[in-house]
TrEMBL record, chains A, B, C, D:
It comes from the Bacteria. This is 3-deoxy-7-phosphoheptulonate synthase. Residues 84-324 form the DAHP synthetase I/KDSA domain. The keyword Membrane does not apply. Pfam families: DAHP_synth_1 (PF00793). GO terms for molecular function: aldehyde-lyase activity; transferase activity. SUPFAM superfamilies: Aldolase. GO terms for biological process: aromatic amino acid family biosynthetic process. Residues 342-362 are annotated as: Disordered. Keywords: Transferase.
Amino acid sequence: MIIQFKKPLDQEILTDILASLKQAHHHGVLVENHLVVFDTDTFDFTERQKSAIARLESKQPRYVLSSRAFKPNDTIVKTPHNQIGGHNLTLMAGPCSVENEEMIHRVAAAVKAAGASVLRGGAFKPRTSPYDFQGLGVEGLTYLREAADENGLDVITEVMSVEEIDAVGQYTDIFQIGARNMQNYELLKAVGRTHQPVALKRGLSATIDELLNAAEYIASQGNFNIMLVERGIRSFDGTYTRNVLDVGAVPVLHQLTHFPVIIDPSHATGHADLVTPLAAAGVAAGAQGLLVEVHENPAQALSDAAQQLTPAQFAKLATRAQKIHELDGAIAEEKKAIVKAAVSEDNHESHHSATNPDENHD
Amino acid sequence: MIIQFKKPLDQEILTDILASLKQAHHHGVLVENHLVVFDTDTFDFTERQKSAIARLESKQPRYVLSSRAFKPNDTIVKTPHNQIGGHNLTLMAGPCSVENEEMIHRVAAAVKAAGASVLRGGAFKPRTSPYDFQGLGVEGLTYLREAADENGLDVITEVMSVEEIDAVGQYTDIFQIGARNMQNYELLKAVGRTHQPVALKRGLSATIDELLNAAEYIASQGNFNIMLVERGIRSFDGTYTRNVLDVGAVPVLHQLTHFPVIIDPSHATGHADLVTPLAAAGVAAGAQGLLVEVHENPAQALSDAAQQLTPAQFAKLATRAQKIHELDGAIAEEKKAIVKAAVSEDNHESHHSATNPDENHD
Amino acid sequence: MIIQFKKPLDQEILTDILASLKQAHHHGVLVENHLVVFDTDTFDFTERQKSAIARLESKQPRYVLSSRAFKPNDTIVKTPHNQIGGHNLTLMAGPCSVENEEMIHRVAAAVKAAGASVLRGGAFKPRTSPYDFQGLGVEGLTYLREAADENGLDVITEVMSVEEIDAVGQYTDIFQIGARNMQNYELLKAVGRTHQPVALKRGLSATIDELLNAAEYIASQGNFNIMLVERGIRSFDGTYTRNVLDVGAVPVLHQLTHFPVIIDPSHATGHADLVTPLAAAGVAAGAQGLLVEVHENPAQALSDAAQQLTPAQFAKLATRAQKIHELDGAIAEEKKAIVKAAVSEDNHESHHSATNPDENHD
Amino acid sequence: MIIQFKKPLDQEILTDILASLKQAHHHGVLVENHLVVFDTDTFDFTERQKSAIARLESKQPRYVLSSRAFKPNDTIVKTPHNQIGGHNLTLMAGPCSVENEEMIHRVAAAVKAAGASVLRGGAFKPRTSPYDFQGLGVEGLTYLREAADENGLDVITEVMSVEEIDAVGQYTDIFQIGARNMQNYELLKAVGRTHQPVALKRGLSATIDELLNAAEYIASQGNFNIMLVERGIRSFDGTYTRNVLDVGAVPVLHQLTHFPVIIDPSHATGHADLVTPLAAAGVAAGAQGLLVEVHENPAQALSDAAQQLTPAQFAKLATRAQKIHELDGAIAEEKKAIVKAAVSEDNHESHHSATNPDENHD
C-alpha cells in the first residue's frame, strides 16, 4: 500500500501513523510525502490519521519510485544541453575509449555535426580480462570534457566504483552504470546520493523487474534523474551478434516506468553493419535516445574495433533515426494510450499536483 | 567448394568429374547446374573438365542453396496476389484459429480494408496440451479459402504433418511450418517436393544457421519459394513478453540469405498492446512482411486471446508499418550495401545470368 | 477437476454426467475410469451422480495421465530384457550411427560385457544439414537387431516420421523420439497408438511442462510405456560443452510424474571426457537409466566423433554409475518421501487399486 | 606466450628482455617469475636472454594465473580449520541471513554435528529490492564469529563493497563475492589485495571464461586463495527451479583451472526438497565442497524461506555426500587423468619446483 500525505506534511500525525503501523508489525519506507508499506494492502486508520492522507494506493508494489503508479508522467532528465525523455530523441555518440586528446576532439566535432548532443567515451573501462586496456583514467576524462565543451555537447562516461564517483562527477554530465554493475548496490546508492543524471544499463541477463529495482536503489536516495539503457541480452546464439537486442523491452518499460528508455545498438550487436538497422528498430519501438559507438578509424580502435561506426555511417544513422522519430506523432499518441491503460485519470491529476519529482529533485 | 557448370550441362564431362571426385573420396551434391563438394576447397581438374565449368567458389558452405553466395539477388516468392520479398512489404493477418464460417469472412474483409493481402488462420493447430482446441481441420480450411477468395487475398495456414500436405495444399497458397516443426526434416522435405510457397518459422531456440539449414532441406527438393519468419525466441524473462523478438535476425538474414524475412510480432510478444511497436521495429530493421493475429473480439477467442489485435488496431499498425517502409528507400539502399559487402560484383553478374532459381522453379 | 468413477463404470450415470457437463458448457476427456474436466474446479452433482464417483480431485491439471496425481506409483516400462524405472538402473549404450555390420556386432558385445542391457544405434539420423550422413536406414536396423539378439540386448533407435514407424517398429524394442521432434504432435500420437515403449527426449529449450505435455500426447493414445530423457538444454555458453545438463530436472520429474527418467550425458556435453562425471551426477540425482554413445574408434566415427566413449571408458562409467546407484537405498527412500509430499496416502491407496496403467496397457 | 624465468630472477637480463619486447611493440605482464606476453607466441631471444629462461609456453592464454598451464597441481586453500580443494570435501552450511544471536549459535552447533566445518551466514545481504531486509551488518558478523569459534568452525560471509572489506575481514575467514558482483572489478582487486581466502560465485549468465577472468582479477593482486562457486545459471524455465545447476561446469573447471570448485545447491534450485539430490550430483561430478543454506525453522526465515534445509535434512545430505565422495578414489584418479591430458609431465615437474603459489601466498 502507498500512502500519499497532504502537503505540508503534518509531522505529528505522521509520527502517530508510523507508531500505529509499527504496533501492527507492518514495515514501511517514507519517501518524501509517500509512505510505502510492503506487507499489507489495507489499514484501519483513525479519522484524525485520515485527515492527513491525500490518497491511498492499495496495490502491493514490486518497486515504487520507478513505477507509473507513483509518477504517471514521463520523467524528463535535464542536462546542460538536453532534455532527455518524453517526446525527445537524444543522440549520444563517441568512441568506446578515449584513446588520446586529438581523436576525441575530432570525433566530438563529427558527431555534433551529425546531430548528436551527448558525447560518450570511456576513461575507466571495465574489461573481462585484467590484462586488457583499462582506459586513460582521469587524463581521458579531461580530454572528453574539453572536447564536449568545445562542441556544445554533454558528456556521458562510465563510473565503475564508489571511490571514482567524485573524480568522474567533476567531468561528466551523466554517469553511466555498466551492465556488469547493474546490481552493484553500493554503487547504485552512491550515484543516487549525487542527484546527478545516471544512465543505468541493463545487466546481461537481468529481468525487467530487476532493472527497475536497480533503478529503485538510485531513486531511493532521492535521485530521479535516471535513464534506462537496453544494450542487448545474453542468448544462445552468439554466431552473428554478440547479444540479442530486446527491442520489446522499450514498450514494456514505457508501460511500467516513467524513466526514459535508451537503446545501445552497438553493444547489442557487436558488428558495425548491424548497428543502423537496430537503431532504427529501437526508435520505431519508441526509444527516446540512442547510445552509439563512433570512431574515426574503427579498425585501429583499442577496444570494440568490430562494432564502432565511422562518422559518415553515424550521420546516416542519425538521419534515419530522426525520420522515424518524426513519424511518431503516432508513437507518442500510442504511448500515451498505453500509459492511460495503466493509470487512472484522477490519480494522474492529484498525483501531479502533489508531487512532481522532476521539480523537487533538479 | 561449389562448381557451377556452363549451360546446357555437358553430361559426359559431368559424369567424368563425378568419377574423378569419387575416386579421390570426395562427397558432392548436384543441384541443377551446381555441384556442391563438402570435403574439399580445391581440386585438380583436367583441361577438358575445366572447359565445362563456368565458375568455382572455393569457400566451404554451411548451407548452399539458401546462401547469398549461391544466389546474390533477393528471392521473390510469387503467389496469386503477391510478390513477397525484395522491396515489397506484405501484410498477412487474420485470426489465430478459424473458429466458424462467419467470423473468418468478417475478419478477411476487415484486414483487406486495412491493407493486408494475405489471410492467415489456423485450421490444424499445434497445441502444447492434447486437450486444447485443435482447430476445425478441413472444415476450417474451406471457410478460410472462401473468405480469402471473396476478398482477393492469398491464404497462409499451418501444415503439421506429411499426411496433411495434400489436403492443406488444396486450400492454401502458402504452407506455414510452425516453430515446433522447424527441424521436422521429413515434413520439410515433403513441402519441398510440392514446390509451393512455404513460410518457415524459426524454432524457439534455433540458431540462425539451424534456420538456414532447415530452409536448405526445403530448397534441396527444388523448392525455392521460401520465406523465413522470426517469431520471437525463448529467453530468461517471461514476465512481460512471451518471447523475445530477435529483431537483429532481420539484417543478419539479409546478409546471409536471399529469402524474404517476415516478422510475427504477435507470437513474439503475446500481448496485444506490444504488437504494434514490435511490428514497427521489425519493418524499420528491414523485414519484408508482417504476420499478425487479428480477431473481431480477442477476449472471446478460442486460442491466443491475449495477443490478437482488433481490426481497428490492425489498421493503425498497417498505416504505421507502411510509412516506415516508405521511408526506406534508405533501407533498400543499405540492404544492397550489406549484400554487396558479402558478394563480389562479377559473381553477381555471372551468377544471375546462369541460374535464376526464381525462373526455374515457378 | 478430475473425476474418478467407481469400478465397474456405471455407463448410464456416466452418460448423465457427461450430458450435465455439456449443458453447462464444460469440456471433458474420459481416460479409463477418469473424467478430466479442464475448465472448472467444481460442479454441482446430483446425489445419483455422486453415487458413481469414487474420488474428486479439484486441482486444475496441466497434464493428466503423466501426473503423479493420476498414477502415484512409478511406471515400470517392460521390454524383453529389462524392467525400466522404479529402483532399477538401466544402461543403454552403442554408437551414434550404425556404420556397418561388423562394428555394431563388436560394440554390442563390448557394451554388454560392461553391463549395458540396451543397445543404441542410429539408422535414420536427424542431421542439421541435409548434406550430412543420414544413416544406413533399414539396412542399419537389421544389423542393429542382429547384434542385439546375439548379445541378449534390447534395441533403442530413433524414429523420425510417421511413415517410418512400421518399419522401425519391426526392429526396435524402444522407439526414440529425438529432441527436435519433441513437439511433432502427429509423430507422438502415432507412436502412442503402437503401445510400444518410447523414449522421449526433451527438446533443446523445452520446459518441464512442455515435456510432460508431449508425453501426454503419447499417453492419450493409451501408451504408458514412456521414459523421459534429459539430454542437455541450450544455454548461453557453448565454449566447453555443447549443452547444459539440467540435472535438476531429474528430481523435479520424479515429483511430477511416474515415468522413468533417463540421462543422456553424451549429447548433454558433446565431449567424451565430460561424459562420465555427468553420468555419475545424473545417477546421484536419481536417474533410472543412462543413454551413452560408445564407439570402437571415436576419432573415425561418421558422426559425433568428439563425444563417443571407447568401450573401455564405458566400462569404467558403468562401474561407477552402478556403485553410486547401489548407495541409493538412500535415494530410493528420499524419492519416496518426495512423492509422498505431493500425493496423499489415501489417494495412493484408492488409486492404486482402481487403475494401474501398467497392467492395463502392457 | 608465458616465459618462466629461473630463480633467483636475474634482474639485469629481465630488464633487457622487457626492453627487447617493448621495442618490438609487444605487451607483457610480470607475475612473480613469469612474464605473460599476450600478443605473440614466439620471440627471437638472444643466447644471453635464453640463459635466464627456465621454460617457454607458447600457447596464447585467455587467462594466466587461473590456468592449469600456469599451475598444474590443485590449489589447496588453507583456513584455520580446513584445507579446501584437492581430494578433500568441505561442507559449508548455515542460514541465509544471521537473524539474531541465539539462532546462529544453535545452527552452528547443528551443522557442526552433521559434519560441516565452515559456517555460512549473511550479515550484509544483497537484495533485489532496496526495501527488503538487508541484514544485521556488523552486529550479525560478531554473532557469526562467536558461533563459529564456539564450535570450531571457519566463517564464510559475503562482502558487497570495497568499503566493507576491512570490517568484514576482521570477522570472516573466507570472503564470499556474490553472483551479482562477479564482474565488480574494483571489489575483486580489493579482495585480491587482502590475500585472504575468497569464494567467488559465478554470475547468473557468466561464461566459464568470464568466471576464470574474474578469478584472474583477484589472483593478479597476488591472492591465490580462491575457490569458485557454481550456484546455478539463469535459464528459460523458472517454473520448478530458480536456476539451472550447471553440473558440467565442475569437470570443465577441473580441466581448466587449479582452483577448488564448490557447489551451492540451495541457490541453484530454490526449493529445499531439491537441494539434496543436486548436492549429491555435484559431489558425484567432482565438486570439492558444498555451500548449503540451513535454518532451524525455514518457514519463518527472513529471507530464502523456500530453499533452506532443516538441520536434520542437512545431516542426511552430509552423510550421502560423504559416501559418494568416498567412492571417488575413482573420481580422484579420473580427475588426475583429465589434468594430465592438458598438462605435460615435465611442465608439471619444473613448474612445481619453481613456483608454488600456495607456498608463496599463505
